[in-house]
Amino acid sequence: MKPIRKLVWVLAIVALVVVAIAVCFYKRPVSFFNRLLYTQMALAGAHSANVTVQGHRMHYYVAGPADGPPVVLVHGLGGQAEDWRNLAPFLRGAGYRVYTPDLFGFGRSEKPADFSYSVPDQAAAVFAFMDAMGLHQVDLGGWSMGGWIVQTMAAGHPERIHKLIIFDSAGLSQKPIWNTALFSPTSAVELDQLDVLLMPNPPQVPAFIAHDILRISHSHAWVMHRALDSMLSGHDTTDALLPQFRMPVLIVWGELDHIMPLTQGQMMHQLVPQSQLEVVPGCGHLAPVQCADRIGPKVQAFLKQ
């Protein structure tokens, strides 16, 4: 009987643990998904670290050989360093040293209350990050708002940019025709509307996951509002800057992007005569995540030219 009682106790404890995990997942599913992302990055060889930049803590990943040519990738509005998880391995595998910082206000970096979250100030912070890493010149890539940031960097200090890669980028003076308030959704309906803008055929988000996403959106809304207000002011657009670029430029665009329509990528291509435009069929604004298997080889080839 004793072995049976012991087995019953073990099974009861296991059941309680499973129930506790299930309850925690139900209440905070986004935290679980983030932990999975952190694990995925670690298993892929990306080292997570923090550095003090402009007096504030900035989180970043670095992966690839220590003596490899440096590549810095800048995520977009509401994004995080893990957004490069599917694309970065292509560069690391080609021998590059890949740095993916979390911009101030996003991911696991600090959210300073006295920071503007404007494109120029974020650009200055990325340069400060490069200085902290000892990177004088890099191949630089940016996605969406991050694309706007790297355009600003390339215009201000072209000597520090070897090659430039722009993914589904903001920056031109054209105003969005969609509701920008959706970047800080306050209801499940608005969250669904945002997903439709971000990707073709978005999956149905379960209600308990949507609830947690909205909770986080509410707590981070002030950062999003400050960044959007700055971008929508029209003060820092890049239309006049792009024709001045002399470094090689690769422009990558999802064919079905509704956030930054393909016409904007085509305009950027026209403004940068030496640029190369790669359109990814069937992909939307999240192309660097969802279509990395097609984008990765093109980026590799561009950097190796």
Task: Tell me about this structure.
The model has no long low-confidence stretch (mean pLDDT 93). The protein contains ten helices and eight strands. With 305 residues, the protein is of the alpha/beta class. It has two domains: 43 residues; 257 residues, Alpha/Beta hydrolase fold, catalytic domain (Rossmann fold, 3-Layer(aba) Sandwich). Helices cover 45% and strands 16% of the residues. Helix 1 packs across helix 2 and helix 4 crosses helix 5. An eight-stranded mixed β-sheet has the order 1-2-4-3-5-6-7-8, with helices on both faces. Helix 8 links the parallel strand 7 and strand 8.
CATH architecture tag of the largest domain: 3-Layer(aba) Sandwich
Mean pLDDT comes to 93
Low-confidence stretches: none
How many distinct beta strands? Answer: 8
> Any idea what the shape is?
globular
User: Roughly what fraction of the amino acids lie in strands?
Assistant: 15-25%
**Total separate domains:** 2
Kindly report the CATH topology of the largest domain.
Rossmann fold
Give the class-level CATH name of the largest domain: Alpha Beta
What's the total helix number? Answer: 10
Helix fraction by DSSP (H/I, runs of at least 4): 40-55%
Radius of gyration: 21 Å
- Going across the biggest sheet, name each strand in turn: 1-2-4-3-5-6-7-8
Indicate the structural class.
alpha/beta
